[in-house]
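Sample log: Nucleotidyltransferase family protein.
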Amino acid sequence: MDNNFVLDLSDLSGEMRLLLDIMSAEGKDIGRSPGRKTDFRGIDWDLFLQLVIHHRVYPCIYTTLKNMEERQVPGRVLEALHHLYKRNAYEMLYLSGEMEQVSRLAANEQIRALFLKGPVLADYLYGDLSLRSSMDLDLLIQSCDLYKMERLLVQLGYEKDDYIQSVLSDWKWRHHHITFLHPKKGIKLEIHWRLNPGPGKEPSFHQFWERKALSPLTNHPVYMLGREDLFLFLITHGARHGWSRLRWLEDIRRLVKQPLDWKRLHLLLKSYQYVHVGGQALILASELLNTRVTAEMKGLLKPRSRQLAQDAVFYIKEMVNLHTPPLPEHVARHHQRHLFSLMSGQQKLLFISSFLYPYHEDAETLPLPKKLHFLYFPLRPVLWAWRKTKKRAFS
């Protein structure tokens, strides 16, 4: 890659460097990757295990380490990884069965569903369910089918995690999924009506459906995003989470080896203002996982992409977990800045303008009858100022 896109990785720990080296080996002898010099000396193996678990890459790490000719990893570490590998293999088979059942029942109700990650992604990118971990199932449907899907899932024993509070239907664009939990099966299922939270533009469900791919994993037809749409989803999802788990970059490394139509992909990303985010993903995959960037990919590499990639190194260095709030103050500040920096100029304008749209807090501050909810628009600045003043008074 052009030296202008080289990242500063000097602050990474020895344990993290070893993890990256093992991932870069791609199942081959560790240390043979160009530019890599593996060092097993002085490794804190407890920290190494923490990193492997945090980044959800234990299936690939185990399969690589178990095939090493020279045993340089303590037996207890391999044993722990083997346990995680086996448990994940069972869980992925379990999720596959549930995915097929949900897909079949949704089809019976004329609900078109696209599975985003989980077993279909493991099979497509890794060729083996046991080589990628997944904690839940994610599927994309049309927003008009949400209530029908909710009734179906409740009949199956799922319970809705009703955390979304809304006024004037802002949930449709401020949020992008609803979570359902099955208390007996221990399965979490996220129903998406958008790939990412708004405000922002993205392809319609009809466009995704027209370009869908059929997964060969199950007997009943299960559909997933087409290659280029999958790239769009994976880079926006990873970027929104700061690439804080290396598993998402491993997905990117494997996806770019597929026969992607790079001209079509470039046009897709340009249309929805995500070219710089695609460049961020490629730079991180190249610098951290030794992914080869071909000439046809270089159209996505922008100077801005390099800065975004460097900003994402923070999440990896700090071992950030965005799913366990409250975040440390310095992490929360960095994440807020990073999310804003990911936006294009138009997306930033939409984001700032969205603050003028009423929030559910406005309805809590001044309850009004539903027929008068339109008054929250002119009242929003007053209600926001009132809450701020009240907060300062009690702090």
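Observation: The two ends are 51 Å apart (CA to CA).
Observation: The mean pLDDT is 92.
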